Automatic annotation (TrEMBL):
PANTHER family in UniProt: THIAMINE PYROPHOSPHOKINASE (PTHR41299:SF1)
NCBIfam families, sorted: thi_PPkinase
Thiamin pyrophosphokinase thiamin-binding domain sequence ranges: 149-207
Keyword Transferase assigned: yes
InterPro entries documented for this protein: Thi_PPkinase, Thiamin_PyroPKinase_B1-bd, TPK, TPK_B1-bd_sf, TPK_catalytic, TPK_catalytic_sf
EC numbers: 2.7.6.2
Pfam families in alphabetical order: TPK_B1_binding, TPK_catalytic
Top-tier EC class: transferase
Protein's recorded name: Thiamine diphosphokinase
Provenance organism: Paenibacillus violae
Length: 213
């Protein structure tokens, strides 16, 4: 699926904003209740998978009949979250891009685990992101261009113990060959002065969070 974009819709916080992310040629993956969201909004998931412990029997029947492919697993005897199962399926397809919708919500443990999933895609050279109504999150390990778009702020947080050689171009608060360690807030709430900025780094994994209030 080189050149393709896979959208994973999972069971966190969703809304009409998510529909605006989906494009005509996207491959749609429904994870647990995320599959129901897609179907209720007129989409036919390419694959729906998970333990489906958050849907009713009637809703599960609808998901099964309305998906091109369907994989159900035991909710007790499984080692992965539904979202990680869907993400691993998407990685195996080797797309150009993976976007997670509904990956953030009231369960902070699940939200943080989903953010950590982005690392797996980054290390395989696949552009991966989490998008919700107010945020877009990526993990980078090499020089990356960032578009300002609809976001007012951009924050940088280390995902590895240390990130070195951070240099920012086009930002209100520049850094030059800086290092960030876990627990530091130096990279919080920067602003892009230009429509596009450049983030350089030498070593480590950097979490880049674009946000708006």
């Amino acid at each position: 699926m080189n050149g393709k974009r896979i959208i994973i819709v999972t069971g966190g916080t969703l809304g009409d904003w998510a529909l605006g992310v989906i494009q005509e040629n996207d491959v749609l993956v429904g994870s647990d209740r995320g599959a129901l969201y897609l179907i209720q909004h007129g989409y036919k998931p390419h694959i729906s998978l998970g333990d489906f412990d958050s849907v009713t029997t009637e809703e599960l029947s609808l998901i099964r009949s309305s998906s091109v492919s369907f994989i159900e697993c035991d909710p007790i005897h499984k080692d992965l979250t539904d979202t990680e199962m869907a993400f691993n399926w998407a990685l195996a397809e080797q797309p150009e891009q993976i976007i997670l919708l509904g990956a953030l919500g009231t369960r902070f443990d699940h939200s943080l685990a989903n953010v950590h999933l982005l690392r797996k895609g980054t290390e395989l050279g696949i552009a991966c992101s989490i998008i919700d109504a107010n945020n877009q999150i990526i993990v980078m390990n090499q020089t990356t261009r960032i578009e300002r778009g609809r976001y007012s702020h951009i924050s940088l947080l280390p995902l590895s113990l240390e990130v070195t050689g951070i240099t920012l171009h086009g930002f209100a608060y520049p850094l030059h060959q800086a290092a960030l360690e876990i627990g530091q807030s130096l990279g919080i709430s920067n602003i892009l002065n230009e429509p596009e900025g450049l983030i350089e780094l030498q070593t480590g994994l950097l979490l880049v969070i674009q946000s708006k209030d």
